Amino acid sequence: MALDREQVVDAAWHILQTYGLGDLSMRRLARELGVQPGALYWHVANKQELLAVLAQRMVAPLSTSSTGAPTTGASPAGTSPAVADDDATLLIARFRSAVLAVRDGADVVSVAHALDPSGMQPTPLLTAALTRAGMDPAPAETAALTLVRFTLGSVTAQQTRESMDLPTATMAAEFEAGVRAILA
Amino acid sequence: MALDREQVVDAAWHILQTYGLGDLSMRRLARELGVQPGALYWHVANKQELLAVLAQRMVAPLSTSSTGAPTTGASPAGTSPAVADDDATLLIARFRSAVLAVRDGADVVSVAHALDPSGMQPTPLLTAALTRAGMDPAPAETAALTLVRFTLGSVTAQQTRESMDLPTATMAAEFEAGVRAILA
DNA sequence: ACCTGAACACCGTTCAAGT
DNA sequence: ACCTGAACACCGTTCAAGT
């Protein structure tokens, strides 16, 4: 009953989650799906496109959940700038968790984010949160980029260590300290 | 007259500089040196070790030059905290330049830095500069890690874009804004 | 001590030909 | 429309055997 693009992406997602980027080869993926390697190229243009789709899937939960907050209309009377700043802190923490949860997630998301820095989540959501917190749009966007790049640098380091069974006990606290410094 | 380790590293360095990480294979390196691939394994344990040596070579200039400043004895009477803070700004900018100058430099240095975050340059030099600027040792080390991880995140993004011929005009300014935010 | 030859177990991608 | 078969041009690493 004919392979489709979704099955290809799902199988790739499973390999990435379970075995990491080093094991996510087009040949391995084809084997897992019971087809010849060439068959995959009917459903995806190439490996790069496949990785871009996986990156989108990793950050998708950020857009679907809370903190997408009031963009239209004025902020509710009770919403102070401090609360919106907490929104940014929460948002970047959720981004980190999402990327950290997938093996080699940072490597995959880093490429996607480099291609579209201001369009890809969590950048637009962060920029909105920081604007709500009282920043002008331009510095808000710059601060959002700083947060995302710092986070990707941190998670890349952590996942590299995890892949080598080195300790990572201090890294969550270091991440939080970095976020505080950037938003201070 | 027998290959030695230095020739292997020099040739690898040349390939990395000129063609990037994608072209730095053990087989290609062997071809360039006029030997069989297996011969390389007499001089280096594996590709990972070779990349670690290249990472060291990229950051070596940082240790050999200025801003290594007075560690022993009290600061000169005229040296205010503000000056030492400028030292940190200068140091992280020089780190960025060194990594940015080598194709895919951020990928190579990121791994080395993940393995030894506090030992590898520029972390110890940065920590020293920030301590001179009046910070306590613990927060100084955390701030140094934040700076280095943000910088590696930024340069990774920029080099990804460069490898795809996408514009990078805004990225130097975004880097500087990030550094200011972190040190503010 | 240092290197070759040859193998092992892989890659991503293309494309004529089949159904 | 969708897939196979087969090829092209590669990988990193090991190791007996040669000099």
How do the strands and helices of this protein lay out in sequence?
Two copies of one chain form a homodimer.
Chain A lengths: L4 H15 L6 H8 L13 H18 L16 H20 L4 H11 L7 H10 L4 H27 L7 H13 L1
The first copy, chain A, binds a DNA duplex (19 and 19 nucleotides) through α2.
Describe what this molecule looks like in 3D.
2 copies of one chain form a homodimer. Chain A has helices at 5-19, 26-33, 47-64, 81-100, 105-115, 123-132, 137-163, 171-183. The first copy, chain A, is mainly alpha-helical. The longest helix of chain A has 27 residues, at 137-163. Chain A starts with a helix and ends with a helix. The model of chain A has no long low-confidence stretch (mean pLDDT 92). The A-B interface holds A 110-111, 113-115, 117, 139, 142-143, 145-146, 148-154, 156-158, 160-161, 164, 166, 174, 177-178, 181-182, 184 and B 110-111, 113-115, 117, 139, 142-143, 145-146, 148-154, 156-158, 160-161, 164, 166, 174, 177-178, 181-182, 184. The structure holds a DNA duplex (19 and 19 nucleotides).
Greatest chain-chain contact: A-B, 31 and 31 residues
The total strand number of chain A stands at: 0
* Percent in strands of chain A: under 5%
Structural class of chain A: mainly alpha
- Rg result of chain A: 19 Å
Oligomer: homodimer
Calculate the mean pLDDT score of chain A and round it: 92
What general form of chain A does the structure show? globular
| Count of DSSP H/I helices of chain A | 8
Pfam families (chains A, B): TetR_C_1, TetR_N
DNA-binding region (chains A, B): 25-44
Domain HTH tetR-type (chains A, B): 2-62
Keywords (chains A, B): DNA-binding, Transcription, Transcription regulation
